């Protein structure tokens, strides 16, 4: 079982962080070789999907992921808010991201799925709490779900160039609020134990009827260009709107190899 509050976590091991760039390039380079797998990924019902980028990146960073999602039959959109420099990028009260999702919702006439990479996942998940009538599900990729920013390897970068200061007081209450998953919207966390930026224990969802976790072998920077992540995203998006279910890694032998774990088999202390 995963506890509802995350303890203080140490940053990922330094060797993982130092290997991030090279590993991410290798994971992206594996996409052409994985085309046979990606071609059999589930095809969906054509609903709209909005993808939110990681910290310091914009829509160009999610281009390959969006291209794949589009190939599975969805209407996929970038967030069109420029580079993700922190919560103020989405508006003081997330009004810019809310407007983007609302526009897509009205255009499509159906609930919108949100996918967020790292900080983008935190922002998407928080928005889902406010707009359960417009959000179908949330999928996060290596997102720090309510952990102390000092537990990440980019805390010093965010404190220097992020557009929203990290408060010195009340941080525990803020983190506890972020840690709590949406009550009415399914939320799946895709994470890696070899993430070099965010401690993996801080990327997993608390146990609940509408939460799930899927473990992959990946760097943090490679989560948005990884074939097994792509397949897991397609699996989640293809679920019926009113028929959400946890990921079944035992559905085939190759899944048991590609996905080391799924569900709620870890707590935040890694047990």
Structure notes:
- It is a single chain.
- The chain has 271 residues and is an alpha/beta fold.
- The chain has helices at 14-18, 20-29, 35-39, 63-71, 95-108, 119-130, 155-161, 171-179, 227-237, 253-258; strands spanning 48-52, 75-78, 112-117, 135-141, 187-191, 211-215.
- Strands 2-1-3-4-5-6 form a six-stranded parallel sheet.
- Residues 1-6 have low confidence and may be disordered.
Uncertain stretches: 1-6
CATH architecture: 3-Layer(aba) Sandwich
CATH class: Alpha Beta
Largest beta sheet, briefly?
6 strands, parallel
Short description:
The chain is an alpha/beta fold and 271 residues long. The chain has ten helices and six strands, in the order H-H-H-E-H-E-H-E-H-E-H-H-E-E-H-H.
Question: Keywords for this structure?
Answer:
10 helices, 6 strands, Rossmann fold, 271 residues, alpha/beta
Map the helices and strands.
Layout: H1 14-18, H2 20-29, H3 35-39, E1 48-52, H4 63-71, E2 75-78, H5 95-108, E3 112-117, H6 119-130, E4 135-141, H7 155-161, H8 171-179, E5 187-191, E6 211-215, H9 227-237, H10 253-258
Parallel strand pairs: 1-2, 1-3, 3-4, 4-5, 5-6
């Amino acid at each position: 079982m995963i506890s509802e509050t995350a303890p203080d976590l140490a940053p990922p091991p330094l060797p993982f962080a130092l290997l991030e760039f090279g590993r991410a390039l290798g994971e992206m380079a594996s996409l052409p070789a994985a085309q046979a797998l990606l071609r059999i990924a589930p095809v969906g019902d054509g609903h709209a999907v909005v993808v939110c980028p990681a910290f310091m990146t914009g829509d160009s960073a999610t281009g390959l992921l969006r291209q794949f999602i589009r190939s599975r039959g969805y209407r996929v959109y970038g967030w069109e808010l420029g580079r993700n420099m922190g919560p103020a990028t989405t508006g003081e009260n997330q009004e810019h991201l809310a407007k983007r999702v609302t526009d897509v919702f009205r255009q499509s006439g159906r609930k919108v799925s949100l996918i967020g990479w790292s900080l983008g996942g935190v922002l998407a998940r928080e928005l889902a709490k406010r707009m359960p009538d417009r959000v179908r599900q949330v999928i996060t990729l290596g997102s720090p779900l309510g952990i102390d920013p000092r537990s990440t390897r980019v805390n010093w970068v965010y404190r220097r160039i992020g557009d929203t200061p990290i408060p010195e007081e009340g941080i525990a209450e803020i983190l506890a609020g972020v840690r709590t998953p949406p009550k009415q919207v399914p939320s799946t966390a895709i994470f890696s134990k070899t993430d070099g930026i965010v401690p993996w224990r801080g990327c997993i969802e608390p146990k609940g009827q509408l939460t799930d976790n899927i473990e992959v072998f990946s760097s943090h920077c490679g989560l948005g260009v990884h074939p097994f992540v792509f397949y897991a995203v397609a699996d989640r998006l293809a679920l019926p709107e009113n028929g959400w279910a946890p990921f079944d890694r035992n559905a085939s032998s190759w899944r048991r190899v590609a996905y080391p774990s799924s569900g709620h088999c870890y707590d935040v202390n890694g047990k």
